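**Backbone description:**
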Amino acid sequence: MSANKHYGRQIVLSLFLTVIGILGLLYLASRFLLPHIDVNQQQVYDVLVKLFPLLLGLIMIEIGVLVARRRDEEIEEEADRLPPNAYDRPFHTLPGDDPVHLHTEDLTYAQPMAKASYVAQQAPEPVAQPVAPPVVQPVVEPVQERVIEPVAEVVPEPVVQAAIDPVVDEVATPAEIEPVAPMTIEPAMEEPVAVAPVTPSVATPIAAVQAPVEEEELLELINTGDFATILAVELENALQMEYDLTLVIINVDEGPAHLIANKLVMLSADLAYSFTRDDDSIAMVLPFYNNDEAKTFTLSMVESCQKEFAPAMLKVGFASRAGRIVDADQLIHEAEAASRRAN
């Protein structure tokens, strides 16, 4: 690799040497040459003013020569310099690679002279001369004469006509038909038909029929009989799969319990199992919820119900598995105790 070129240092050094040389020449001229010549100081000043532009031009020419000059060592190093990643290229060369083909880095870093010499060393490939196709001449076979044999004459044989017997169609004799005795038809007696009396139908009011249906639809939103079964199954799954489960017990002290239960079921949707118990309390089973997550999820719904059914009083108790091996009765007991202690 070539050494770093300090052009600034060379320029300053050349200027310094030039100034010292000019001052030395002026000193020698003023000491030895001017005393022997009748020249005053004004004439010397005029000459120096005229020489100053020439001095500046010489300095600029010197700077250009220093910057543009390239040493022979640098030229040789650049000619021998390999492109990047070219040190191990022979190890990655395949047998079918074309040596004339130049890669991108070769085109970027290659020198024109080196490329020209490389192309000159390549021997010209022999040009294949066209080969004339062979001329195929048709083969002429001799024509054989056809021999026609005489055909023997065919004598027709006499046709003998056979005697044809007449065919007589047999006619079947008709069977004797017995006379049918006439049937006597007696007239049928008409029986009296009993007609049931028609009673007028009374139209029932539609509002009276629709009212109990709406109540049944509201009550069907809440599960009333599967609380113990679902809690036991979900708790067993939580123990086997090692995930958390939280039971929430909500006691309604003031307010419509059924409407609040329906509201909680609609808000929780499929995220929880909601039930109404015999004591009008509401139970919610939250799989995959820990105690903090169940509080955040449930208290927001409770606040919404309290605002809608004011002045409703709801007491909420939480009981979480929290990695313990517990049964359903213990979890229910903990949730009820927490609900009673709630303010």
